[in-house]
């Protein structure tokens, strides 16, 4: 019999912040976000599973292809998931969408897929690596062949909007979305076509950043986008291609999650992000070290559970 997992609760009451042990508040009053540990090898991938209080299940990014232990499909099967209400592809790099094919071919029902295919000129910046638009077209055709709706959200669009049994509002909203060419940023890398998504449960917020880079990060800061969040999914797997410190200053997160192998997290490439969160005394949860990490969002606060 395994030991109970430690649950870390960040309490916010009367202006006093404190850590404490606490039980889960109940599924009907909690939105559960699990950063799936899909980086068993020395590689990168991103996949986030969100269970809403009304029972809907959303996947943000779909990791890489593969059916081995800790691959995305393996994780979904382990959680007995047979249907997804929505799959969101933050941007079309293979480590963020690759397992979408696995999921379809395994027979897991998908009601809809939201994504943001980059402009050809943006993809061309990455030749011979990066986004393969020919392969993206194949994936989109597979969606069409299975009659799975695909759409590109509008900036500010609420993809999910619901309430808990007690009336707490819960939403999933697109904060920004650019195609890499026709935007105020001009021509950008595919990373800067990442859709920035905010999950809100009452007054508690989580920010999903895809692989947003310095260009997009600086633009959002300069133009006063509301980036504030209690928890942030660190972009670019915590590596040097992440936005500047000013971006993270504006988010003001109290916990950070990063999907990253140990070798990358401890490398010089991740030193800047590691040091930022150490200097600001913000706890970090790295998938390769913690396994699956689950954030329970409540009306005024959150808990974090880890496998390790």
Strand order of the largest sheet: 2-1-19-18-3-4-5-7-9-10
| Uncertain stretches of 5 or more adjacent residues | 1-27
Helix count, DSSP H or I runs of 4 or more residues: 10
Q: Please state the CA-atom Rg, rounded to the nearest Å.
A: 18 Å
Give the SSE order as H and E letters: EEEEEHEEHHEEHHEEEEEHEHEHHEHEE
Let me know the average pLDDT: 89
- Record field, number of beta strands: 19
**Gap between N and C termini:** 15 Å
Approximate shape:
globular
Question: What does this molecule look like?
Answer:
The structure is a single chain. The chain has 308 residues and is an alpha/beta fold. Helices cover 22% and strands 28% of the residues. The protein has helices at residues 72-78, 94-97, 100-105, 120-124, 133-145, 214-222, 245-251, 262-265, 271-279, 287-290; strands at 7-13, 16-20, 31-35, 47-51, 57-62, 83-84, 86-88, 109-110, 113-114, 150-151, 158-163, 169-176, 196-201, 204-208, 231-233, 255-258, 284-286, 293-298, 301-306. The strands form three sheets. It has a ten-stranded mixed sheet with strand order 2-1-19-18-3-4-5-7-9-10. A seven-stranded mixed sheet has the order 11-12-13-14-15-16-17. Strands 6-8 form a two-stranded parallel ribbon. β13 (196-201) and β14 (204-208) form a beta hairpin. The chain is globular and about 45 Å long. It starts with 6 loop residues before the first strand and ends with a strand.
Give a short synopsis of this structure:
The chain is 22% helix and 28% strand. With 308 residues, the protein is of the alpha/beta class.
């Amino acid at each position: 019999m395994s030991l109970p997992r430690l649950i870390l609760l960040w309490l916010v009451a009367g202006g006093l912040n404190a850590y404490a042990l606490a039980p889960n508040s109940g599924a009907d009053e909690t939105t559960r976000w699990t950063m799936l540990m899909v980086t068993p090898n020395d590689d990168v991938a991103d996949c986030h599973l969100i269970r809403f209080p009304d029972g809907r299940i959303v996947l943000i990014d779909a990791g890489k292809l593969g059916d081995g232990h800790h691959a995305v499909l393996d994780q979904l099967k382990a959680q007995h998931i047979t249907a997804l209400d929505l799959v969101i592809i933050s941007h079309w790099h293979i480590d963020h969408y690759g397992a979408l094919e696995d999921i379809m071919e395994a027979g897991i029902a998908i009601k809809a897929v939201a994504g943001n295919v980059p402009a050809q000129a943006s993809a061309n910046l990455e030749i011979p690596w990066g986004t393969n638009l020919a392969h993206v077209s194949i994936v989109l055709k597979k969606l069409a062949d299975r009659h799975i709706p695909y759409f590109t959200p509008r900036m500010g669009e609420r993809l999910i909007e619901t309430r808990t049994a007690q009336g707490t509002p819960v939403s999933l909203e697109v904060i920004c979305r650019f195609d890499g060419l026709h935007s105020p940023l001009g021509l950008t890398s595919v990373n800067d076509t990442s859709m920035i998504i905010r999950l809100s449960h009452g007054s508690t917020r989580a920010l999903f950043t895809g692989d947003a880079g310095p260009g997009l990060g600086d633009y959002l800061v300069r133009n006063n986008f509301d980036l504030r969040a209690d928890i942030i999914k660190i972009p670019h797997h915590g590596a040097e291609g992440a936005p500047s410190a000013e971006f993270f200053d504006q988010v003001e997160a109290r916990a950070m999650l990063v999907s990253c192998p140990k070798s990358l997290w401890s490398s010089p490439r991740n030193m800047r992000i590691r040091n930022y969160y150490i200097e600001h005394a913000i706890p970090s949860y790295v998938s390769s070290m913690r396994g699956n990490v689950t954030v329970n969002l409540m009306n005024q606060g959150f808990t974090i559970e880890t496998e390790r």
